[in-house]
Design brief:
mainly alpha; 80% helix
Length: 66
Amino acid sequence: MNAREFYDTVVLMRKAQKNYFKTRSMPLVAKEHLQESKRLERIIDDEIKRVELLTENTKSPTIDFT
């Protein structure tokens, strides 16, 4: 995922979160927004983990002694 895709996904996630809070009084609609919000949160969390692993690996490279 590049920076633009990350940004666009965060924007969609925030919209889903805001829609959830706007529609909490309508359980069926709110449930859809909550599910979408959670789906997007998982995508963002996975991307954060991926980038953290990349940056961690560049900070402490391994040496192959074989």
